[in-house]
Amino acid sequence: MPPPSDIVKVAIEWPGAFPKLMEIDQKKPLSSIIKEVCEGWSLGNHENFALQNADSTNFYITEKNRNDIKNGSILRLTTSPSQTAAQLHERIQSSSMDAKLESLKDLANSSRDVTFAQEFINLDGISLLTQMVESGTERYQKLQKIMKPCFGDLLSFTLTAFVELMDHGIVSWDTFSVAFIKKIAGYVNKSAMDTAVLQRSLAILESMVLNSQDLYQKVAQEITIGQLIPHLQGTDQDIQTYTVAVINALFLKAPEEKRQEMAHILAQKQLRSIILSNVIRSPKPINDEMAHQLYVLQVLTFNLLEDRMMTKMDPQDQAQRDIIFELRRIAFDVECEQNNSGSIEKRKSMYTRDYKKLGFINHVNPAVDFTQIPPGMLALDNMLYFARHHQDAYIRIVLENSSREDKHECPFGRSSIELTKMLCEILKVGELPSENCHDFHPMFFTHDRSFEEFFCICIQLLNKTWKEMRATSEDFNKVMQVVKEQILRALTQKPNSLDQLKSRLQNLSYTEILKIRQSERMNQEDFQSRPILELREKIQPEIMELIKQQRLNRLCDGTCFRKISSRRRQDKFWYCRLSPNHKVLHYGDLEENPQGEVPHDSLQDKLPVADIKSVVTGKDCPHMKEKGALKQNKEVLELAFSILYESDEYLNFIAPDKHEYCVWTDGLNALLGKEMTSDFTKSDMDTLLSMEMKLRLLDLENIQIPEAPPPIPKEPSNYDFVYDCN
């Protein structure tokens, strides 16, 4: 008799019969269990049958996933995946439109299961679908006018099945013909196309570009930015999201030499203004996926600056030296006219004097200042843009500083170089986009030269802050730190326009920054005297217990997690929560992200806390060791954790953000009696401890606390002063 842990009690359904309650021995081969079930209903040829989850997924039970079966699960006896695949393979070739449509709908649903997908692909099913797309659908196009909805559904289910099958990564994307690519591109290029067909077509093009350099070349020949732009001008945000995703994919995979050319085309087609008016300023709220795609586009656009950022100036290059001459000419135009004549020595002396006024470190040859990378030539580009497009502000800054004492002048040249470097660091110029980030800034979509305009605003801020701090040349680094803080604080408020950024920076004066710093310092004040330290040590366990209870309460509320796949927009969701008695983890799949609380009874799977052996994080997680994109993604790696239980079983998580990651790892460690070590716990401990300390010390305000406790007085010589009240 096997131990109870190997026995799972389930219900098994069969169409037209009463469900059976069975005990499944997990040590027995699955084929034996299926045979036993078939014999119970007097069904022969048990090898033609299989067990399936009787939920919305309808996934087949295999030897690999059978351990996921939990007590109380409902299974269904059905035809084997090979039989089902063969039947659907035949049915989708039916001459009847209705039969074909129904079978393609079934295929689209079944293809989500990797077991079925493998069997269908083994029958050369993907080739059949591509042939149907290339030529098979043409004979139905004559019926399109009279049966347009039916034709749209037919094509939609065909493409959906194709996308689901390809998503399993069984077949390489490099195997597809030019005719197939042309057909898919044709659906995207048509002005009036069924929404579902357009969505699938855009998803296929994105996957082709991202997964194959060869297919990128072919897709780039078939699709132009001009053909994608109209899809952004509609009102369907899903179509807009897929369209931006395709543009990002083309941008990302384009060779270095073609990216600038592509950026020029995007500017010509006014992509930025179209996104601004139809997406960012649309009355509909921007969903997470669109926010991610806009963030990716923002990063890829700023990455075009990397080449200039990493290019050193050649002091011997006359064209580059002419830019410096132009900066001097704009700043000192009148003076230059008056001093145009004279000896070479006088002109050199005049140039040196002017370059010093412009704030260059090397007064004799300013070109040397731009040999540092980063920011390289990008700093000079920004300075020239400021001088030409904001000439009055440029001249005012240069002349203001040239009229101050040497030690109090704010060096425009040096400031511009350091500021450009700082802005590149803030915007992470040259780094690839993060997989999970949604941090786009609407204001960068309001101007074609947003980085240069951003620089122009910040260089004026730097000059203003320099004056407010009454800084000298020795304070240069301090000023840069304050300016960085001003910029970061303004960016966190996500200004919608560059004018809003100016307004917010105007309010974040040096005086305001000092007030904020003082307030934060008071909130984080760390008392160092011995009595205070002793009080802290006494309070700390109480605070830690409070944090522990908060973490466990959050686990009881539960969290929705993503099952990240190669196609982000079609991610699956699952939910996990801790039972109120802290003894069981309930979890299960969801169709979509829930808006409210998910009840326990809707989560079919359970994991007793007593069975948990350990919690692992990051690269130690089993799903981070598997081959695939997730392994290479640093952001996903930092959000991954797994629960190991029984002998070699595990439950894998990828937290939606760092906050949820800390909550769950802390809560699970608390359940296991281990220390909570996350950054979030440290932050909570500091905040709560500081608040509790201040509350307890309120009555001691303005009272000096001695370093040592007062001495205990001597015992009295007698106790006559004690009265017996009885």
TrEMBL record:
All copies of domain ELMO, residue ranges: 319-491
Entry's Gene Ontology molecular function annotations: SH3 domain binding
Main location: cytoplasm
Keywords from the UniProt entry: Apoptosis, Cytoplasm, Membrane, Phagocytosis, Phosphoprotein, SH3-binding
Compartments (UniProt record): Cytoplasm; Membrane
GO cellular component, one term: membrane
InterPro entries: ARM-like (IPR011989), ARM-type_fold (IPR016024), ELMO_ARM (IPR024574), ELMO_dom (IPR006816), ELMO_domain-containing (IPR050868), PH-like_dom_sf (IPR011993), PH_domain (IPR001849)
GO biological process: apoptotic process; phagocytosis
Xref: PANTHER family: ENGULFMENT AND CELL MOTILITY, ENGULFMENT AND CELL MOTILITY PROTEIN 1
Job description of the protein: Involved in cytoskeletal rearrangements required for phagocytosis of apoptotic cells and cell motility. Acts in association with DOCK1 and CRK. Was initially proposed to be required in complex with DOCK1 to activate Rac Rho small GTPases. May enhance the guanine nucleotide exchange factor (GEF) activity of DOCK1.
Name used for this protein in its record: ELMO domain-containing protein
Protein's organism: Umbra pygmaea (Eastern mudminnow)
